[in-house]
């Protein structure tokens, strides 16, 4: 990624995998541990930027998992990997249909952009 003025951008954009799934009752910790293993394995893949795992407030069985990828070719390579197969297999354990989405992020702005807007002449 390169910094262009107040905008953070890359030539082809960034891609994000976003998963929301329900753990089986009283099995949240097992699902989180499986997601941690998947995240650790993904770190070895080219193009991996960052991954996050969290539980929804007030609903500890609802688990969210996100991964950021630097380009579409690297994301596609990851989707074909055994690591992603492990994620798909984990999703099958969800008692409710999980939601898996791929987001394409073309523009990403940071705090400098916000500061420029807030403190600029109107």
Average pLDDT value?
88
CATH topology: Alpha-Beta Plaits
Helix percent band: 25-40%
Uncertain parts? 1-10
Overall CATH architecture: 2-Layer Sandwich
Please count the helical segments: 4
Shape: globular
GO molecular function, one term: monooxygenase activity
Keywords: Monooxygenase, Oxidoreductase
InterPro entries: Dimeric_a/b-barrel (IPR011008)
Protein name: Quinol monooxygenase YgiN
Description:
The chain is α+β, with helices and mostly antiparallel strands and 122 residues long. It has a single domain, classed as 2-Layer Sandwich (Alpha-Beta Plaits). The protein is 34% helix and 36% strand. The chain has helices spanning 28-42, 72-79, 82-91, 111-119, and strands at residues 2-4, 7-9, 14-22, 48-56, 59-69, 99-105, 108-109. The strands form two sheets. It has a four-stranded antiparallel sheet. Strand 1 and strand 2 (7-9) form a beta hairpin. Helix 1 (28-42) runs antiparallel to helix 3 (82-91). Mean pLDDT is 88; it is low at 1-10.
